[in-house]
Amino acid sequence: MSTIAIVGGHGKIALLLTERLSSAGHTVLNVVRDARHEPDVLERGGTPLLADLEAANAVEHLTERFQNADAVVFAAGAGGGSGVARKHTVDYLGSVRSADAAVAAGVRRFVQISFIGAEQDELGLDDEVFTAYHHAKRDADRALQSRDDLDWTIVRPGRLTDDPACGSVALGTGFARRTAEGGASDSIARADVAALLQAVLDEPGTVGRAIDALEGTAAIAAAVAQLFGVPQSR
Predict the structure, then answer these.
(1) Euclidean distance between CA atoms 23 and 42, whole angstroms
(2) What CA–CA distances, in Å, run from 197 to 18, 89, 153, 176?
(3) Where are the beta strands (DSSP E) in 102-192?
(4) Coil, strand or helix: which one is 42?
(5) How many Cα atoms occupy the beta-carbon half-sphere of 182 within 13 Å?
(6) H/E run at residue 23
(7) Residues near 91 by Cβ (< 8 Å), separated by ≥ 6?
(8) Per-residue pLDDT of the chain in tens (234 residues, 90 and over written 9)
(9) Buried b (16+ CB within 10 A) or exposed e, 15-42
(10) Is the C or the N end of the chain the one with fewer CB within 10 Å?
(11) Please, are residues 100 and 138 in contact by the beta-carbon 8 Å criterion?
C-alpha cells in the first residue's frame, strides 16, 4: 500500500479521492489550511495536516508534510469566490511550492489537476478573474512540465459536475477544440475525476503526460490501461 499526500485536501475531488484511496488500503495525508476542515477529512479516512500554501515558509512546511509519501496530488485552488491575486498565489505559486517540496522530501510522483484548455496561450474570454485562473493553471502546468526531477502527470477535466459517477470517460488531448465544435459533452463528474486520478496514480505509463478527460463510454481503468499501459505480451 502507498501513502498519498493531497494538497488542497478538503476540496470536493480531494475528498472523493481520499475515500477511494483509503477504502483501497492506502494512507492518505490531506493538506488543508483550516482546522475546521479536519472532521470532513477524518470522516473519509484521511489524515488532516495543516499548511498554508500562501505562507512565506510554505515549502518548508509542505516538505515536512510530504515525509514518507509515495506521491503528491495537487488538487488545490483558490475557489470561485476569490479574486485575481489569489489565482496566482494558490493555483500557480501553490503548485510550484508543492512541487519544490515534493522534491525536497524525496517524492518523485506528482499528479496535478488542471482543466481542459489550460494549455492554450489565451482563451479570449472577457472575464478578468477567469483569465487570471487560466493563466495561473497554464503557467503551473508549464512549470511542472519543464521539470525532470518529478514523475509528473497532469489531468485536465472538463466542466465539473456533482453528478453521480458514471464510471466511464473519454481520454485524450485537444478536447478543448472538440467540445467547442460540439463534438462531445463538455463535462465530467467530480466522482469520475477522482476515480481517474486513482487509476493514473497506479499507471506508470501516464508519467510525462497531460490527459484531457470528459464523460465518455470507456471504463476508467480500461481507458487508462489502453492509452498508457504497458502492452501485454501474447
Answers:
(1) 13
(2) 11, 24, 10, 20
(3) 109-113, 151-157, 159-161, 168-172, 187-189
(4) helix
(5) 0
(6) helix 12-23
(7) 76, 77, 78, 133, 136, 137, 140
(8) 899 999 999 999 999 999 999 999 999 999 999 999 999 999 999 999 999 999 999 999 999 999 999 999 999 998 877 889 999 999 999 999 999 999 999 999 999 999 999 998 888 877 889 899 999 999 999 999 999 999 999 999 999 999 999 999 999 987 865 554 444 578 999 999 999 999 999 999 999 999 999 999 999 999 999 888 755 443
(9) bbbbbbbbeeebbbbbbbbeeebbebbe
(10) C
(11) no
> What span, in angstroms and rounded, lies between the C-alpha atoms of 187 and 213?
9
- Count of CB atoms within 10 A of residue 125's CB? 9
- Could you tell me the strand order of the sheet in which 3-7 lies? 47-50, 27-32, 3-7, 71-74, 109-113, 151-157, 209-215, 168-172, 218-219
Residue 164 corresponds to which amino acid? P
Q: What does pTM read for this prediction?
A: 0.93
Kindly state the cell numbers that stand for 110: 506528482
Please name the amino acid found at residue 205.
G
Report the chain's C-alpha Rg in angstroms.
17
